[in-house]
Design goal:
Layout: E1 13-18, E2 21-26, H1 37-51, E3 58-63, H2 75-80, H3 88-105, E4 110-114, E5 117-119, H4 121-127, E6 131-134, E7 139-141, H5 155-158, H6 166-173, H7 179-185, E8 190-191, H8 197-205, H9 210-217, H10 225-236, H11 242-250, H12 257-269, H13 272-288, H14 291-306, H15 310-320, H16 338-345
Parallel strand pairs: 2-3, 3-4, 4-6, 5-7, 6-8
Antiparallel strand pairs: 1-2
Keywords: Hydrolase
Domain Enoyl-CoA hydratase/isomerase: 22-345
Pfam families: ECH_2
């Protein structure tokens, strides 16, 4: 079958075929490849097409210029439309989570080549695929609690699967990790320098078995920072309330005393509602052990966040006005009740629930 140069209508993501490979080239560098609704829909359309095309061996996802992979969803756009199109955010999260589910069910190799920022929605389009290659500039985080949201894209399913309490630590703090930690945690499957990305793409183009290719190029990155911090993380982020976690952090002594105080200060600066919601979703995700059910629960919470105060205030303070002085409401952890968090997770009454299709197959 000849290769096709047909691109998607949007220039922000280029989806095309080259012999046996489907290519997803994120092409919005000025926005750090933040995902718009149009980008998500374009990727979803092409993954469905590639799933049913027997000539396509696998998919490569990468930044078009090999810069930052993806900084997440375009929350600034949602913020700007808050008064003119109140359902814009709901449409975005519904389609984004559907695409996360599609990626999890896509049975062909999906190789994300990551060099630079991979946050939020960028984690979502990569972590549910089969292979995630971390290059030297790899920086992964789920920083949503700093902008009045919560780690979504199925993070409530992914984070509880990480060793010990590291997933909760990452979700609450938004800590940025490098390639070594990403590999040790399984968030990256291989560590390969960015100058080998074209070689990997060429191999998939010719339908070479991908595992031997990646295994042959992989270079062990050594131990990460979280290996040293693991005992303290497990100790401080043990089961309990967010208030308990902060109290434990502030009581750290010895080599981790400074880390404890700095981490406690980070948590105190984030949205109290987001922190408690993130903890609850982590617990629910561990109990459910189902990406599908976690995404449904996250959608309910996303709808409630879009109708609340803190998400818009966090985006304003961090990304629009950039005064880094969000005025959270409530402003104190003790004022966020269990009943408030229960309401975020309750069934939706005026918006259709997220229905993730699984009665059809991605291959014929």
């Amino acid at each position: 079958m000849p290769s096709s140069a047909e691109d998607t209508p949007t220039p922000d993501v280029i989806c095309r075929e080259d012999n046996r490979v489907g290519l997803v080239l994120l092409n919005r560098p000025k926005a750090l490849n933040a995902l718009s609704l149009e980008m998500v829909r374009a990727m979803e359309t092409h993954f469905h097409k590639w799933a049913k095309n027997p000539h396509i061996y696998g998919v490569i996802q990468r930044a078009h210029d090999d810069g930052p992979f993806c900084a997440g969803g375009d929350v600034k756009a949602i913020y700007k439309m808050r008064d003119t199109d109140k359902d814009a955010g709901i449409r975005f999260y519904r389609d984004e989570y559907q695409h996360n589910w599609t990626l999890q069910r896509f049975i062909k190799p999906t190789v994300s080549l990551i060099n630079g920022v991979c946050m939020g929605g960028g984690v979502g389009i990569s972590v549910h695929g089969t292979h995630r290659v971390a290059a030297e500039g790899y920086k992964l985080a789920m920083p949503e609690t700093a902008i009045g949201l919560f780690p979504d894209i199925g993070a409530s399913h992914v984070l509880p699967q990480l060793p010990g309490r590291i997933g909760l630590y990452m979700g609450l703090t938004g800590a940025v990790i490098g390639a070594a930690d990403g590999y040790r945690l399984g968030l990256a499957t291989h560590c390969i320098s960015a100058d080998k990305f074209d070689l990997i793409q060429a191999a998939v183009r010719e339908a070479e078995p991908i595992d031997p290719v990646l295994d042959g190029l992989h270079e062990d990155p050594g131990e990460g920072e979280l290996t040293r911090l693991r005992p303290a993380i497990d100790r401080c982020f043990a089961p309990g309330s967010v208030e308990d976690i902060i109290a434990r952090l502030e009581k750290e002594t010895g080599e981790t005393a400074d880390w404890g105080r700095e981490t406690a200060a980070t948590l105190r600066a984030h949205s109290p509602t987001s922190l408690k919601l993130t903890l609850r979703l982590y617990e629910e995700g561990a109990r459910l052990n189902s990406l599908k059910e976690s995404l449904k629960l996250e959608f309910r919470c996303a709808v409630r966040c879009l109708r609340g105060h803190d998400h818009y205030e966090g985006v304003r303070a961090k990304m629009v006005d950039k005064d880094n002085n969000p005025q959270w409401d409530p402003a104190r952890l003790e004022d966020v009740s269990d009943a408030t968090i229960d309401a975020y997770l309750a069934p939706l009454d005026d918006v259709p629930e997220l229905e993730l299709e699984d009665h059809w197959t991605l291959v014929e």
